[in-house]
Write a structure and sequence with these properties.
Layout (H helix, E strand, L loop, with lengths): L2 H13 L7 E3 L5 H9 L5 E2 L2 H7 L10 H14 L4 E4 L8 H13 L4 E5 L1 E4 L2 E3 L2 H18 L4 E5 L10 H17 L4 E3 L6 H11 L3 E4 L7 H6 L4 E3 L3 H20 L11 H9 L2
Parallel strand pairs: 1-10, 2-3, 3-4, 4-7, 7-8, 8-9, 9-10
Antiparallel strand pairs: 5-6
Length: about 280
Amino acid sequence: MSNPQQKEKAEVFRKLHTEGDVLLLANVWDVASARIVEDAGFPAIATSSAGIAFAQGFPDGQKIPPERMLTVIADIARAVNVPVTADVEAGYGSKPEDAARTARGVIEAGAVGMNFEDATGDPARPLFELQEQVERIHAIREQGKSLGVPLVINARTDVYLLQIGEATTRYGEALRRLSAYRDARADCLFVPGLVDIATIRQFVADLNCPVNILAVPSSPSVAELKGAGVRRISLGSGPMRAAMGLLRRLATEVAMDGTYSFLRDAPSHAEMNKLMERN
């Protein structure tokens, strides 16, 4: 894909955060899952870093080699026509140049968006210092500019997901971080681990910027989140884990009961062939 085409896709993807209906993203982990989601009518494809890692035989948390993650992202981007946004965890390194290198890899893979989190993976220092993270976001933005592809940055804080600090202090700390990421020119702000609708509504009001919520079984409905002003709803590794849950139930049924009822929802062989043969 040429840079002009990527630039156009990036601009289309950015507009999905501010115009029209709420942006729904059913995260994928390989070409087959990406084509199924695209075929269902989704306007963009988001990868799941955990989903890709699990499918490649690695635990989540920046354990997969970056080049392997980027190879799968490239396969997905080549396989679909809609914009692709890539979850690349915390950028595979602690320095701004590491974040810039990962952003370059995302662009070279054909993606036009980038999830970027502030979790370090170190229990002694679970989050990057705020200024560190701001500098890393700046490096991503500059890399996109230099390559002619204005990456859509979804800046994530894990204050709620990792339950950092006392519950009473989390809102203030998450708001401080997300406000700084917004001011560093992130396009969307991601708060996984948050399910309380009143708190979500308050973030939307205080940030005055597109907000992304991770949907889990206990989350408010799409209609409720839309009513609260949320602009982007993603499913993270949920779809991949749900697929694995179905496989586990199917395997258990065959082994224990000798029946195959869980195969009923499977796309036909012809349907899958048709999806894979599409240009």
